[in-house]
Amino acid sequence: MDDELDSLQQMIEEDMRSIYSKTVIDHAMNPRNMGRLKDADGWARYTGPCGDTMEIWIKLSGDKIEQAGFFTDGCGTSIASGSMVTELATDKELDKALEISQNDVLAALDGLPEESEHCALLAATTLKLAISDYLSRLKEPWRKHYDRR
Ligand code: FES
Q: Domains, the chain, ranges and CATH?
């Protein structure tokens, strides 16, 4: 039975490797920065056209994103995309982090199958929204006291 399970697992892994890059598999199986950040400076929840939702939290130190966290109810490639976009954003100045695009996430993941490319867009869009949440909070600091995120 153990041998059968091992060979089934091997077949599944070979299948995945024929579709996804090593980086995608790594980030999907061992996501970085997963989870909510307490006392975040910026947060966004965004649902893409496919119906999957991503949340991103950011903490700032000066003008830099010191820490970013994410959560998604989406597929493995959206997990990989959330993991990668939070990695790309960490230690970036805000204006540079705002420039992180779907293509940047795709490039850092060594590509995604065409039908999954929108997962990278979901991640890049959610990051932008989290940054704009932070920027809007600068104008309305009282909002922090009513926060339920
Ligand atoms: Fe919707 Fe991946 S299928 S984000």
A: 2-146 (3.90.1010.10)
